[in-house]
Amino acid sequence: MDHFSLSSDDIGFHLFTCESLATIEKRIAEKKTEQAKARLENRVQQAEVEKRQPRPYLTACKKLPALFGNPPLELIGEPLEDLDPYYNDHKVKVIMCY
Fold first, then answer.
1. Is 82 within the bounds of a domain?
2. Would you say residue 5 lies in a domain?
3. Is 20 left (phi over 0), alpha (psi -120 to 50) or beta?
4. Structural contact between residues 58 and 84, judged by C-beta atoms closer than 8 angstroms
5. Which keywords annotate this record (predicted)?
6. Number of domains the chain is built from
7. For the chain, how long is the longest CA-to-CA vector?
8. Residue 23 located in a structural domain
């Protein structure tokens, strides 16, 4: 029986860098622009209707689900971009302990 696993590149184990922060700030600015435009046009955005939620299995102090595999050892203790897509427009970082 084959076991399903993802490589670190597939899941998004990426170092949190100045470029990461710039990308997040760009997403925040785009989101604010879209919200302002929607208010001006007096319509509700689909994203706000859906009310995205953080993934409960990726909360702080929980063990990383086996589906994600083990992060590369060189990334342990380093600031990483968040794995949860909910936070792709939030200024957050993750540090994994092993």
1. yes
2. no
3. alpha
4. yes
5. Coiled coil
6. 1
7. 55
8. yes
Identify the pLDDT of residue 10.
47
CB 21, CB 91: distance < 8 Å: yes
What pLDDT is stored for residue 26 in this prediction?
A: 94
| Range(s) of the domain holding residue 86 | 13-95
Instruction: Pull the structure tokens for residue 4.
Output: 């399903």
- Residue 98 tokens, joined: 């092993």
The Cα 74–Cα 78 span in angstroms is 8
Residue 30 confidence (pLDDT): 92
pLDDT score of 90 more than 80: yes
pLDDT given for residue 43 in this prediction: 61
Residues in the chain: 98
Over residues 3-60, the pLDDT tens digits come to 334 344 445 688 888 998 899 999 999 988 988 887 777 665 554 555 778 888 888 8
